[in-house]
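Re: the 327-residue chain
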Amino acid sequence: MHLFFLLTLFFLLVVILLISRTLSYIATGLFCYAFTLCAIYAGRWICKKWLASNKWSHLIFAVVNALVGFTLVGTAGFVYLFNPGMPINHILESAINISVLSFFLLFSGFFITITRSALREKMNGLVLAEQKKESELNLLRSQVSPHFLFNTLHNMYSLSVNRPAQLPPLLLQLSELLRYSVYEADQPLVTLQEEMAYIRNYIALENIRLADRLKLTVNMDDNPDDIKIVPMLLIVFVENAFKHARNTSEQQIYINIHLKVRGNTIYFMAENSCSNHSNEDGAGKRNSGLGIANVIKRLELLYPDAYGLKQNRTNNLFKVELWLKEK
């Protein structure tokens, strides 16, 4: 950037000399070139020192001294190159003009340094914000699989006690679920078809456990393979629906899950039975909100201004609706 600036200024000097069609101004042109560069870079140096110390007294002292020095040097050079016998009143007038020019050049260097410093701080801020966002996402991703594993192992324990004969095939299904949560969930995006297959496997596992009291409705449209989604987002709402429906005391529980794509928007809905009683023990309160809070944070980071989330509870039903703009 410095080289480009120097060459551009030198090019302007050459153009001016060529337009004048005389070699008598070469010395004057070189003097003006050197004077301009020195004044601008002096302004940059003063600004850097001021930014480092942040003392206005140092700034004023440096600017006044630089202004006086460049005015004297510029006036002397002007008189020597143009008219060595210039009257004193013309010399004073030239000194005033040169002092104004010197102030403008010093201010130009000052302005360039301030602007570059502001841009550099802004870029550093953007880099830090991106790094913070990435670290938050890594933390949230690291919480997804343990949360899922905790819920699934709890289900397996219940089956091993009540219906151990059904456990072997479910262990194979669990291995598929864990494979996806460990390997695929680490990817920034997966196809919507892969996420739907994962949800279907989880629903099948839960359906066997609750088959005697569950009325389940699943309606997920077949969608093109090129539709992408952030992995392990929707499963949190499905887990939540099964957990809260299972904890009710009703003989018949209801879970409705719908997923469809309209245009560039993914619509997901999960509706489940829930209890009217909100009194839970301390552990339940501590653990119940982890998944939902996690997914909301991920939505804010990965789908800023590109998602809508609505949660509604009426009587014995809890309903969550999610709209996502396609990635």
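The longest strand covers residues 253-262.
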